[in-house]
Amino acid sequence: MKEIRIYPAEGTWVVRAEGAVIGESREALEVIEGDAPFVIYFPRGDIAMAFLEPSDQGSHCPQRGAATHFHITSPGGQMDNAAYSYQSPPEAMAQIAGHIAFDAGQVTVERV
């Protein structure tokens, strides 16, 4: 298994869906798994949840546990399964509970 490291993400981070800001946080987490690019996890309270709709799709990661996926409604339509969250991760990953990460291929996540 690849090592997963979690750090406070420095600065202010935003997530945009087709230009619309759906989240902004100074409390985000940077999650790095092995040699893969980092992923920013936003606290749920910093996301405009009205843009997210729970998906029927789920997934499971041996290190993070069960993930809930979300569709994002944007000005251009629906982005299927563009966000995910681990509500009850194992103790070693407890920091990401209550956070939401996004599919960087569908949305823009950037430090501002």
From TrEMBL:
Coiled-coil blocks: none
Domain DUF427 per the UniProt entry, residue ranges: 14-104
The organism's place on the tree of life at top rank: Bacteria
Pfam families, A to Z: NTP_transf_9
Listed InterPro entries: DUF427 (IPR007361), DUF427_sf (IPR038694)
Record protein name field: DUF427 domain-containing protein
Native organism: Rhabdonatronobacter sediminivivens
